[in-house]
């Protein structure tokens, strides 16, 4: 903005207080750029770029680590992820087909039919009757298979099976966590071997024997014999990986956030660095989402055609919490990037802010014509405008942080409410008549 343009704008009586405040802010930025010394410290930009890149790359790794840790170490999350599988129609159909096939692998209907016909012949049944019965062997096997399939489908779809499925998953997760964390009382490590404590089995056997009338079993003391089940090296490695996963899930997210904050701080232009960090994290989330689609396609193509639907549904259920996390970080990073862009000095951002100021000024003028006055609130807001803006942003951040498992939609709602609140604040911002930059009218 040249000096002549500045004087012409100053002479224009059409500027509203909001437009004049925006003009003053732009003047300060232009003056700061003119007084800024030439670029001599290039290493700050390079260091900021490297740090921000590391933070953006580490963010999806941290998200994946937290997701895996929750599936392995958090029993409630593991059950919440896997228990709905048995309620999926495609999964139920696949389980029903597999169980029915297994039943008929051990129940040879043709062989049983042949033995029955031979027994009838041996008992003197007329050959014509036996021949007619033999002709019904094929339809009988088909009908029997259909009957068994329907019965298995009813059992799989029953609430009892769903409850049993959930209890089994919870018990398996708890036992696995106890073993991997070294807190299991049933699995111990001794002499380089993993040994299973047989005390629970002995106690259960003791109770069953007593209930059956063999009361002498009450004399069995509380003993803890063990048997070797595997070498201790594998378990120790698994426990080490489990411990490493627990530490990584705790610290990696904070390290990634610290790198992003450090990169923005080191950068010469903080707003531009914040914009780049937001876009970088959003791009990383999109990359992980695309990788999940590729893995899903490979998984579906690797199974038989009859199990394709079940495999796809199972995969979608298992990774749904990971996708929720991807959406959340994607929306948060876009909101941060958009905020950094709209507060910047670009022509587009300035135009958007100017348009918003004009709209708010028009609403304020309409309210004034309708007799709406802010009284002492307007000057107070004008005097504390910056602090109030940062306060609203801080409240929005705190609401997001203390929400239990927020979603991407939640972030959008919080952002929209924040924008509305900032607009109301701008609407209430009315300087005192002596502070609006105009000279008081001369007395008549």
Verbal overview:
- With 444 residues, this protein is mainly α.
- The chain has a domain at 57-73 and 232-343.
- It has 18 helices and three strands.
- It has helices at 3-11, 17-35, 43-73, 75-82, 89-106, 109-122, 127-135, 137-156, 159-180, 199-211, 232-266, 270-302, 308-318, 320-342, 347-369, 377-383, 385-402, 408-428, and strands spanning 187-190, 193-197, 226-231.
- A three-stranded antiparallel sheet has the order 1-2-3.
- Helix 5 (89-106) packs across helix 13 (308-318).
- It starts with a helix and ends in a 16-residue tail after the last helix.
- Mean pLDDT is 75; it is low at 435-444.
- This is Integral membrane protein.
- Keywords: Membrane, Transmembrane, Transmembrane helix.
Helix and strand topology:
Layout: H1 3-11, H2 17-35, H3 43-73, H4 75-82, H5 89-106, H6 109-122, H7 127-135, H8 137-156, H9 159-180, E1 187-190, E2 193-197, H10 199-211, E3 226-231, H11 232-266, H12 270-302, H13 308-318, H14 320-342, H15 347-369, H16 377-383, H17 385-402, H18 408-428
Antiparallel strand pairs: 1-2, 2-3
